[in-house]
Amino acid sequence: MSSLRIISYNVNGIRAAMKKGFIDWLKTNPADIICVQETKAHKDNVDYKQFTDLGFYDYWFSAQKKGYSGVAVFTKIKPDHVEYGTGHKVSDDEGRVIQLDFGDIRLINAYFPSGTSGDVRQNFKYSWLDEFLNYLNTLKKTHPKLILCGDYNIAHKEIDIHDPKGNKNSSGFLPDERTWLDKFYVNNWIDTFRIIHLEPHRYSWWSQRFPTVRLQNKGWRIDYISVTENLKNDIVDAEIYPDVKHSDHCPVYLEIRN
Known about the structure:
With 258 residues, this protein is of the alpha+beta class. The protein has a single domain, classed as 4-Layer Sandwich (Deoxyribonuclease I, Chain A), CATH 3.60.10. The protein has helices at residues 14-19, 22-26, 49-52, 89-93, 119-142, 175-186, 192-196, 212-215, and strands spanning 3-10, 33-37, 57-61, 71-75, 81-84, 97-102, 105-111, 145-151, 189-191, 223-228, 235-240, 252-257. Helix 5 (119-142) links the parallel strand 7 and strand 8. Helix 5 (119-142) runs parallel beside helix 6. It is globular and about 45 Å long.
């Protein structure tokens, strides 16, 4: 049996990450498929030849607004089909979702909205979440084997955040956001990292406002790779790589048989 090695990574600006050694890290062969979020760039504004020179096919879905949002996938395995967006115009204008088919598996790379800038975006986040869950439920009927990786911008449980009490009113850990994830996982989805790792203090994002926060590991786990229940027995490994530092996030990893 072959397997897919997948990384999901919010790079907080692909050009900034490239200046911090992102390409050198890719040369270490961390995965077959690298899904990145928050590219903050259009393909034409990036030296994308650096990816193709390493043997990656590259697929970009950027926001209409320059320097904002955007997702991309760099893959050594050529997909059978690529789909840009979900048909939800407000989301697609912000370049939030790209989908690739590998055999009977559909891989979805998504950058969930953040609500940290205020009520308008928080409300947008809630409406986006509901719209997206409906989309996934419909998609399951034609593509039953799904992998959803990305920056979900939600810490699910108290174990997923360094200070649950202090952040109970913070966007990303609000009761309604966490309830959405409850609803999502009850609906035949698996949190691949937590299937393997039950230990605390495993995070994928650290605030940049306080430089010592990452050193002290005061973080949040808001980056996930989830799979539909029918892929549960194919999970080989899942991991988080906090020592990889091109961003305020770090990569999360899944190996799955296909």
